[in-house]
Every structure is written in C-alpha cells, then in structure tokens.
Design brief:
The chain has 342 residues and is an alpha/beta fold. The chain has helices at residues 55-63, 76-86, 91-109, 113-116, 135-144, 160-170, 186-196, 213-220, 236-239, 253-256, 259-271, 285-292; strands at residues 2-19, 22-36, 39-46, 123-125, 127-130, 150-154, 175-178, 201-205, 227-229, 248-251, 275-278, 300-301, 318-320, 323-325. Residues 135-226 form the Mandelate racemase/muconate lactonizing enzyme C-terminal domain.
Length: 342
C-alpha cells in the first residue's frame, strides 16, 4: 500500500523574472513523497500564478486521493484516468503524483527512467532563459550564461528590439525567442518574426494569445521561423490539432499532468511531424530531472528551471557547459534526497 507525504515549499529565484504577463521573484511548490514497501518516490507541483494553481489548491486536491487500492505493478493509465476524474485542472498536482510514481517504478525495477521509457541516454544541450529587462541587465545575464550553447530570450513587452540588440551586443549564439502571448496583432507579429529571422533565432514560442486561433492559422502559414505552442498546447488532446496553429509543441510536465502523458504527447507529435521542445517552469532538480529522461525525444531542450533558483532542496543530474548529463541512479536520478530536512 502506498502512503503519501506533502510539503509546501516556496522556490526563490536568483533574479526578478519578467515575462510579457508580469514579474515574480518566487514560485509556490508542493513537494510529494510516496512510500511503497521500502521504496520512496519523489515528485513536485510547480505552480506559477499564470496557470491558476496554488499550494492550497494542490494540497486540497491531493487530500481527495485514495491510494489504498494501488499496488505494484502500477497501472499508470488507470491511475492517470483516476486523477483526471477526481477534478478538472490541477495539472501540476497530478504531475507531482505521476512523477513520484515513476520514481518508485524506476527504483523498484532498478533502472533510470530513460531506460524505463526505452529511450537512449542523451547529453542534453539546454538553453538558459533570460527574462525581460533593461539592456544593461540583459547584457549581464547573457554574459553570465556564457557556458550555454543556446539562450532563451523573453520578448513580448515594449522593448523587444532593445533586448535583441543587447543580446547581440554580447553574443551571436543561437537564440530561442518566447513572446509568452505578448504579440496581439498578427501583422505586427509577422513583421517581428521577419526581423528576427536575420538575428540567428531558432524559433518563436507562443507569439500570440493561446485563443487567437484564426490569427495563429494565418501566422503559421506565413512565418519564416518555426512557431512553437506553449500556453496554447497543454494536454494530449490539443496535440491532435496543433499543426493548424504551430510547427511544434512545448511539452512541460506541469501542463501535461506528468511523465505518462508527456511521453504520449511526444509520440503523437512525432507521428504528426511536429517539432518537440521539452520545457519547464521554475522547478527543483526533482521535476527537471524527471523531464530530462524524455530528452532524447526532443528537438530542443529548455530544462534550466532549477538553475535560476537560490534554494533547490535536491541534487540531481549534473549540468556542465550547458549540457545536462543524465546519471544512472534509479528512478528520477535524485542524489540522497534529504526529505526530513527540507
């Protein structure tokens, strides 16, 4: 029989993080530990305000769950259906449970999760995310990220050109651009994309509001750069029609309810010839480590959510020169998680 422990936690960012939708210095989390016989599995719910979940809502949802009937081998399909039937939304809270169950499976079977998913072990070149800021601060952040081979730059405010000029004043390395729904006029969005095409930009993530369906259909047929859906593509069902609006999708565990559905999303995206980006929120090494096991399926990796925080309670996979090196610890890959001292 499975038992569960839950801890609220506030993850503090090293710098103020600004996107088109606002700014913050912290992220509320709920940390989860599942126990099954002599095994422990870890998970987390990361809940930026944009997605509507809170520590209180996550704890309340988790309290409604009955683990008494779950035994090994875990039927993840039926468990996922059960979680979805308990309440709508709550995707981060569901991801925390899913993640901890996968961690348990890996430990019981004594395999790292990439092996459980029958994927190769990959060295993952993650981007380093830099939020909206003044030109001076942008240049500092870019310089600090010199070890990374890719940058992810937030646009969508009123100083897009200033930001890109500041980046290019420091480096010519390839850049992922994330507008976070900040461009609201399709013609202006296309003008910006055509301008960015000459700035060594790899793709544009979520250029327009997620419900601007007709505008995105218009834009995706004209954009000279790939368009990637983030806020606009959250669950498996939305992948089926994603190619109407995007060239690729950003899969995040906190949106997809965890690894089980994220894996299915990636397989479906590949079958539809959609590009795959593997992304994150501000997270600890637990959630980042879990997502990294799917890295071999992705065209682009943006798993730096644990690198910009000041109080990560866990240690996971090493990151050197912007490359995530998967370890072979069973399950997620956490190194001696010290739950009792968190």
């Amino acid at each position: 029989m499975i038992s569960i422990e839950v801890k609220p936690y506030v993850l503090l960012k090293k710098h103020v993080f600004r996107i088109a939708g606002g700014a913050r210095t912290s992220t509320p989390l709920v940390l989860v530990r599942l126990k099954y016989n002599d095994f422990e599995g870890y998970g987390e719910a990361s809940m930026p305000p944009l997605y509507g979940e809170t520590i209180a809502s996550a704890q309340a949802f988790i309290k409604t769950l009955d683990f008494s009937t779950i035994s090994y081998p875990f039927n993840l399909e039926s468990i996922s259906e059960y979680l979805d039937c308990r309440a709508k939304g709550n995707t981060a809270a569901k991801a925390a449970i899913d993640m901890a169950l996968h961690d348990l499976i890996g430990k019981i079977e004594n395999v790292p999760l990439y092996q459980y998913f029958d994927l190769p072990k990959a060295e993952l070149k993650t981007s380093k995310t830099i939020g909206i800021d003044s030109a001076k601060i942008i240049e500092q952040r870019v310089a600090e990220a010199d070890a990374f081979q890719f940058l992810k730059i937030k646009l969508g405010g009123d100083n897009d050109e200033e930001i890109i000029k500041a980046v290019r004043h420091v480096t010519d390395k390839p850049v992922f651009v994330d507008a976070n729904q900040g461009w609201t006029n399709k013609e202006e969005a296309l003008d910006k994309i055509e301008w960015l095409e000459d700035e060594n930009i790899v793709f544009i993530e979520q250029p327009m509001p997620k419900t601007a369906y007709s505008d995105m259909e218009w834009l995706v047929s004209r954009s000279p750069l790939p368009l990637i859906g983030d806020e606009g593509i959250q669950r498996l069902e939305e992948v089926k029609t994603a190619s109407r609006f995007y060239h690729g999708i950003n899969i995040k565990l906190m949106k997809s309810t965890g690894l089980h559905e994220a894996f299915k999303m990636a397989k479906m995206a590949k079958s539809l010839n959609l590009k795959i980006m593997l992304g994150c929120m501000s997270e600890t090494s637990c959630a980042i480590g879990a997502a990294a096991h799917l890295g071999a399926m992705a065209d682009w990796i943006d798993l730096d959510g644990n690198l910009g925080v000041a109080n990560d309670p866990y240690q996971g996979h090493d990151v050197k020169n912007g490359i995530i090196h998967l370890n072979d610890t069973s399950g997620i890959g956490l190194i001696n998680p010290n739950w009792d001292n968190i």
